[in-house]
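Input.
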Amino acid sequence: MSDRYPKIYTVVAAIPAGKVCTYGQVAEMADMPRAARQVGYALAALKGKNHQIPWWRVMNAKGEISVRNEAGERENLQQTLLEAEGVEFGLNGRVDLRVYRWLP
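Output.
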């Protein structure tokens, strides 16, 4: 695990239910500008581990769920978890970041 991951996890853990952040926003808040991809790697590293990090609250800059190599299973879970928190997806499959983006 990268020594940067704990900083990323601290930021993601602070995102409140019903709000989302973009990968780039998390990187900025973790003092790692232009490291959005690193955020994605850190969140992918959580798969299968027992943790309390709300990874599902992080989306791409378009307000979309980023497709992973898996056959859609985690994307469906991410949308289900966000909807359970009250986050709404438009007909285009996007979340309105003007409404749901967390701005601490």
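Residues 73-84 form the longest helix (12 residues).
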